[in-house]
Amino acid sequence: MFGIETVSGPAGAALLIGVVLLEAILLYVGYGILERLFGPTITELLRGE
């Protein structure tokens, strides 16, 4: 999909680790933003306030 399957050996491993790390960072930031935007509203709904 990204062309990383064409790279092999240590370079391929480093590239795969980099892609996974980047994905983790993006998910962490994205979920943090969603939690800040919608967290209080969802908490209020669940508490029945």
Overview of the structural elements:
The protein has 49 residues and is an all-alpha fold. It contains one helix and no strands. The protein has one helix at residues 9-47. It is rod-shaped, with a radius of gyration of 18 Å.
Distance between the termini: 46 Å
What structural class should be given to the helix and strand makeup? mainly alpha
Q: Give the biggest beta sheet.
A: none
Shape assignment? rod-shaped
Number of helices: 1
**From N to C, what is the helix and strand string?**
H
* Share of β-strand residues: under 5%
How much helical structure, as a percent, in the residues? over 70%
Provide key terms for this protein.
rod-shaped, single chain, 49 residues, mainly alpha
Produce a short descriptive summary:
This protein has 49 residues and is mainly alpha-helical. The chain is built from one helix and no strands.
Topology, element by element:
Elements: H1 9-47
